[in-house]
Amino acid sequence: MARFYGIGVGPGDPELLTIKAARILESIDVLLLPESQKGNNNIAYEIAAEHINPEAKLISVEFPMVTDTEIINKSGKLAAEVVERYVREGKNTAFITLGDPSVYSTYNYIVKHLSADIEIETVPGITSFCAAAARVNRSLAEGDEILSIIPATSTKRLMEMALDVTHSVVFMKVYNQKDKVLKLLEEYEMEDSSVLVKRCGFEDCSVHYDLKEALSGDKQYLSIVLSRKES
């Protein structure tokens, strides 16, 4: 039987696509492309485009940008049905995702709906927060420090629980959550040690050390805040 691949294409820079990901994409038969809204340009595709088999069948699967898990699970189930159909026809099928497939990726909503006999291979990619740390030449964690990856869409209480025990933090999904993030950083006296990186890995990547000013500007979905408690 053919195989289903979940491939992380990295944060944005095509040169950060792994050799393994490129090799698999060059021979893939069917490629599923995630879309948040019909008609949008697919960022993951643009990153990996030069390595994708030109004969591969491209299929867009919609994953709405919502917090309702029922809706997301439904999208995952529909995508899984597409995957199973092509894999059972003997076609190697892949789904590409920004960053790494194991970190807040819609890929996992596909995997959980696949039949047990479908062979799956997950190909890791460089995460946006690792790329952001590299961009500003910053360590994410040292020694026995605890690093927390916090989605800014989480509840304030859960975020506080993480901040109570962590030394270094990555805030993801900052889009539309700026007030909550700024308030927490002020409460934990971490604002001065924070940096905002927008569109890391892309040519128009920008770095901001004045979070209040940067977050009050144009909203950018691909934004990450790196922060740490000063010793």
Automatic annotation (TrEMBL):
An example of a Pfam family matching this protein is: TP_methylase
Q: Name one GO molecular function term.
A: precorrin-2 C20-methyltransferase activity
Residue ranges of the Tetrapyrrole methylase domain? 3-204
S-adenosyl-L-methionine in keyword set:
yes
GO BP terms, alphabetized: cobalamin biosynthetic process; methylation
Keyword terms: Cobalamin biosynthesis, Methyltransferase, S-adenosyl-L-methionine, Transferase
Pathway noted in the entry: Cofactor biosynthesis; adenosylcobalamin biosynthesis
Report the sequence similarity comment from the record: Belongs to the precorrin methyltransferase family.
Q: What is this protein called?
A: Precorrin-2 C(20)-methyltransferase
